[in-house]
Structure formats: structure tokens, C-alpha cells
Amino acid sequence: MNLATLFSWNQTGQKRNLRQFVTKELLQAVIIPFAVVELLLLIIYFTINSYITHKTKETLIMNVQNDLRELSKHVAASFDIRLSKIEQLAEIFRREHERLFRHPDHFLLISEPKFIHAANGALIQQNRGETSLYYSTITPHTPEQIAKARLTAALDPLYRTIKEADPLVAAVYLNTYDSMNRYYPFMENAAQQYGPDLNATLFNFYYEADATHNPKRQVVWTDVYLDPAGLGWMASCIAPVYRGDFLEGVVGLDITIQTFIDQIHALSLPWDANVFLLDRTGTILAMQPKVEKILGIKEHKIDNYTNVTTVTKKPAELNLKSTPNLATREAMKEIFRGKELFETSLGGRNYVAFTRTIPRTRWQLVALVDKETLYAPVNNLASLARTIGYIAIGFMILFYILFLGYLIQRSRTIAAHIATPIEELAHATTIMHERQEIVNIPKGGIAEIDQLIDDFTAMTVHLSHLYRSMQQEIED
């Protein structure tokens, strides 16, 4: 058999020489395993990075939940302590008024108040005292009523002391069953502000403390209302003043919603958390500016107004139970199902929400944390890891291009080193077959092939001698 049979056949039946065969097999033997290993390493790298990112987010959200729970508990407790102090002041205020009505002879006036009728008929205090007085025209201003107005001026120092005891308190007052109002700080224009015939008993800062709404005669908090005295949206801590079983009136300490807004704005919370405060009906008491954008609800502000004659509460759009903003109502419904922690979506963004009830008022403090903000550090690290991975892929591609070029050149050199002696051997076989000549075949330095060349050379020499001997015999 001719040594050319060493050449292999490809799948199409066409011959492929030894150089091609060696080059291809060598490339496949190196490139494929190398590429598979690198691919597996990349898969492992990106899988581990994705897993670590996922677990980090899980751990982070758990930490945030725990921290939010503690933080909201702390903030709610802080509010509760402040409100508790105001309740204590209201209780002191109530007891002193009850003592005043039971024992009027135990109290002395510091200065004698003077009363006149305003242009609209309401009775007001003419001389500027610590407190102002307003008496509605719905009650005849008899000597008995004048005497009561005079008597209540004896507690002027207490009014000032109660208000100054806590910076949250905007005003303190007494409203009687017959619509007399003593108020601190002094109101210059009480008659114009209230109008001639204000009926205090129609307002929640009075009737929510009466026997029907408050049979235990406790200190209670009102819902938010528009203050007739002109201080805007207000919540009041009120307490009934009884003389025996007769309700003489209701005392109150006013806290403006702006005060709560200022308190909310002053909060510095981690993760850029946004906070708002709900009353027990679900109406927004106060919220940070960002919350307005998140909820799609604007705070309803009223600057100048007079003669409020009935309870005016915040508009329905500020109540999360009834707001016409359906998306917000749906997103916040878990608050009213009693869930302290939940996730929700608003405006295409995802939030972690935590609620905490302030025990004394049953108000709810709600904190919203944007998950994108929360996950930003983790996402940045994950993005950096992906970037590093992509850079690694780029370097790998460049490396493979250079390595492939080197490998092709090297494989051709190796193939030539193997194939050249065999090609020379095949060529020598042809010459030997056609011309019976002995060809000197160079060796390639490969032991097996060099041995084959030596054996082939010895065989051709032997055959050549044998051929000549046979020719000689024939000629003889």
C-alpha cells in the first residue's frame, strides 16, 4: 500500500491532507476545552454575582423592615409623649376651671375686665388682658352672663402658663354651653373673626367632649377641623368642665396642623424615607413635600377666612379611604387592614411602607421607602460586577483572537513538522515505485517517524539490491 493512504477522508468523501488533519485536530483539542472552561467560569461568575445580589437585597429588606419598625416605634413614641404632655396640661386646665365654677369666691382678679358690645352685637372685652373674650348674640348678655365673663378672667395667668408650657400649643380656650369663648393669646378682632352669632356647641371641639360623645369625661382629641379663630387646620385636645352633672363648657388646647407638618419636616430618616401622618379617619394630617408627589395629593391650605359657622373638615381627597385618586386609594388600602408592613406601588415606583399607631390619638404614622433608593448601593455594586464581567469578556475575546492566531500558526508549524517527513516518505515511495531510485529522506526529529524513515530507507536499499540482482540474473 502506498503511504498516501495515510491521508484521511472527510465527511464529503474529499481527501484532506495530513497537514489539515493535524492542524484541525490540534485546534479542536485546544480551543474547545479552553472555550468551555472559560464559558463555565463566566456562567459561574455571573450566577454567583446574581445570587449574591439577590441575597443581599433580601438581607437588606429584612434589615430595613427591622430598622423601620424600631424607627417608627421611636418616632410614634416621641409623638405620643408630646401628646401625653398636652393631655396632662388639658387635665390641669380642666380641673382649675371646674374649681373656678364650684368655688368662684376662691379666685381673685388681677385686673378688672371691661366689656362692650361690638358693632355686630357680640360682647367682647374692651381692655386688653392676657385673654380675649367673645360672647355670642345667641345668648342674651344678662348680668349673670357678664358675671361669668368677669369670673373667667381670674384664670388669665393659667391660660398663659398652659400655652407657654409646650411649644406645640398654639392657643388655649374655654367654650361654654351658652357660646362664651375665653381665648389666649388675646384676639384683637374676635367679634369680626367669629361673627355675631357663633354657636360653639355645633363644633367638634365642643360636642366631642359632651356627655353623649364622652360619657367618661376624659381628655379626648378632635379630628382635624378648620379653626374658627383663624389659625387654619387644627386638632384640639379637649376636656369637659362639669359643675356637678351640668356641663358648663369645654376647655381646649389647640395644635395647628402646620405644627405637625413642621415636626414631620424636621424628621431626618435613613434611606430617604418619606413620612406622613393620618388621623383616625384616614385623613392626612401632615406630610412631607415628597409625599404629595408620591401620593398625587396636594395639601389643602387656607390662609385667610372669617365667620366659620360649622365644622369644616379637610376635603375628601385628603382622606385615603375616600380620595378620588383611585391608584393612591388602592395602594394605601393595606393601612386600613391593620398591616404594619407591606409593599406597594405608586406612580410606577415600588415602596416599602410601615405604619405605626400613636396610642393616645389613634393617629397613624406612615413611612414610605423607595425600593430603588433602598437598593441603589446593591444595584450599583451589581452593575459594577456586571461591568467587570463584560470587561473580562472583552479581554477574553481579544485574548482568544491573539491566542487563536498564535495557535493556528503554532499548529501549522507542528503539522508541518509531522507531515513533512511523511510527505517526503510518500514522495520517495512514488519514486521508488516508478524509477526504482533511492531517495535520501530528511528526518524531522520525531523518533517514530525517524525510525520509519530509517526502516523505509533500509527496505528500499535492500529492494534496490534485490532488483539489480534479479536483473543481472536475467541478463546472464
Main sheet properties:
9 strands, antiparallel
Task: Tell me roughly what share of residues is in helical segments.
Answer: 40-55%
- The computed structural class is alpha+beta
Note the run of SSEs as H and E.
EEHEEEHHEEHHEEEEHEEHHEEEHH
Architecture overview:
Helix content is 48%, strand content 18%. The protein is an alpha+beta fold. Helix 1 runs antiparallel to helix 9 and helix 9 packs parallel to helix 10. The N terminus is likely disordered. It contains 10 helices and 16 strands. Strands 3, 4, 5, 6, 7, 8, 9, 10 and 11 form a 9-stranded antiparallel beta sheet that branches. Strands 13-12-16-15-14 form a 5-stranded antiparallel beta sheet.
Outline the fold blueprint.
Layout: E1 8-9, E2 15-16, H1 18-102, E3 115-117, E4 123-125, E5 132-135, H2 143-152, H3 156-164, E6 171-176, E7 180-184, H4 190-194, H5 204-207, E8 220-221, E9 225-226, E10 233-243, E11 246-256, H6 257-266, E12 274-278, E13 284-287, H7 289-295, H8 326-331, E14 341-346, E15 349-358, E16 363-370, H9 371-435, H10 447-475
Antiparallel strand pairs: 1-2, 3-4, 4-5, 5-7, 6-7, 6-11, 8-10, 9-10, 10-11, 12-13, 12-16, 14-15, 15-16
